[in-house]
Amino acid sequence: MNSLLSPDQLEAELRAIGAERYHSNHPFHKRKYRGELTRGQIQAWALNRYYYQCNIPAKDATLLARLPTPALRRAWRSRLIDHDGDGEQPGGIERWLRLTDGLGLDRDYVISTRGILPATRFAVEAYVAFVRDRSVLEAVASSLTEMFSPTIIAERVAGMLANYDFISRDTLAYFQPRLTQAPQDARFALEYCKTEARTRQQQEDVLAALRFKCDVLWVQMDALWGAYVEGHIPPGAFVP
């Protein structure tokens, strides 16, 4: 535990965490792309996931304010535009609302976040707080789940188009840009972590940050499973 990992060894450890802990392994996700969820369960997923999507720019803005150099700030700023749009082209949040529109959810209700699960709210807010309060290195490392997102996006899009007659390519418009945005963002964050984690403790912090972020995503799937598969919907949460 005291010897410094090489950059390639650190990357291998990070990828092993993703292979074990990324929420593509969760049974709720597997049911989704296999066509085994009801329309109401898909609505619940999209509604709850909106809270995560709409907080990503807030998370990135807190980190942007803490980055020490203009070059780093310029690199990270693109993430805000990707999600918020540039005033002319829609960003990821607007495209996610196109998904919830297509699923028949009232847009004002979605934006209000009144119907999301308590665990969704707690997990997302814990992630925003982590990025705000921990070191810049840990905050950057927590974004490394993007290394694994192209696989889950490909599974999700192909499976949902094949298995749900209420889903169209327009409904899933959020995902296409992410197939190029996420790998680009992940490459930058990975190189930053491999370069800036100069001690074994810093490398362990990077690994722990990725585990934490995987937990943030996993617990949201657990909450959906408990509420909408097992039927334990909390008071005030969305009822299909």
Largest sheet: none
Instruction: Please identify the structural class as seen in this structure.
Output: mainly alpha
Q: Overall mean pLDDT score? A: 92
Helix-strand topology string: HHHHHHHHHHH
Measured as a percent range, the helix fraction is over 70%
Globally, the shape reads: globular
Keywords, separated by commas or semicolons:
240 residues; single chain; 0% strand; mainly alpha
Q: How would you describe the overall organization of this protein?
A:
It is a single chain. The chain is an all-alpha fold and 240 residues long. Helices cover 71% and strands 0% of the residues. Helix 1 packs parallel to helix 11 and helix 2 packs across helix 9. The model has no long low-confidence stretch (mean pLDDT 92).
Task: Give the topology, please.
Elements (H helix, E strand, L loop, with lengths): L6 H15 L5 H8 L4 H26 L5 H15 L7 H11 L4 H6 L5 H16 L2 H6 L7 H15 L11 H22 L3 H30 L11
Helix pairs in contact: 1-11, 2-9, 3-4, 3-5, 3-7, 3-11, 7-11, 9-10
Overview in brief:
The protein has 240 residues and is an all-alpha fold. The protein has 11 helices and no strands.
